Amino acid sequence: MFTGIVQAKCEVMAIHTKTGMYTFEIAIDESLREGLQIGASVATNGVCLTVTQEVNGHVFFDVMEETLSLTNLVHLQVGDWVNIERSLTFGCEIGGHILSGHVHTQAILSEVSKTDSHYNLELTLDPQWMNYILYKGFVGVNGCSLTVGAVTENSFMLHLITETLRLTNLEQYQQGDTLNIEIDSQTQAIVDTVERVLAQRFGHNV
Question: From CA 67, how far away is CA 186, in angstroms rounded?
């Protein structure tokens, strides 16, 4: 489990390709490697990955084809930066919202608006997932717990503060790029339950 509070953005140092699998080699700060064990879970751009090796400050993660096909990890290149969060431990402050590290879908960055006073992103999302995107609700974007701004039928806004831009890789994305999306599990459960109850009460056309 994760909180969506990204701890660092870290550089992809190498990508080793094998049949049906990529191995990402990522340089992770010493402070974040403290106590890190083989088999530990680390959110990488919001994707829960398992540590397979650590060598000279570089941490290795094996990523299967299925994960690559569902996430933007497939687009990573050497020199790119990824958002990193260690898994939640008992007693830690939860400043975001609970995330599983299981990406539901990807959104397309349809517009970037930046001025001296704001940095806004508009993300376009498949309508089936927009049911769970609510104004002032939570959404996981590349592993970041963010508050949803204005919502349309197929898109939503994000209003990013300077600290979020400093700690994460969101500023490196441009129009047309894809970002990993994990919807809030509580929102999904509530929406699905309400829809099921209404369908049972009033028929499946509701």
Answer: 23
> What's the per-residue H, E or C state across 174-191?
CCCCEEEEEECHHHHHHH
Query: Strands 47-55 and 58-64, how do they pair?
Result: antiparallel
Q: Which residue has the tokens 């599983």?
A: 100
**pLDDT, tens only, 99-139:** 999 999 999 999 999 988 899 999 999 999 999 999 999 99
Confidence band for 96, pLDDT divided at 50, 70 and 90: confident
Q: How far apart are CA 167 and CA 83, in angstroms?
A: 8
Q: Is the dihedral of CA 48, 86, 33, 73 positive or negative?
A: positive
Give the DSSP H or E segment for 166: helix 162-167
Angle at alpha carbon of residue 187, lines to 183 and 191, rounded to 5°: 115
Q: Which amino acid is at 40?
A: A
pLDDT over threshold 70, residue 20: yes
Chain centroid offset of residue 95 CA: 16
Digit-coded pLDDT (tens) for 49-70? 999 999 999 999 999 999 999 9
Mean pLDDT (the chain) is 92
Domains delineated in the chain: 8-86 (2.40.30.20), 105-195 (2.40.30.20)
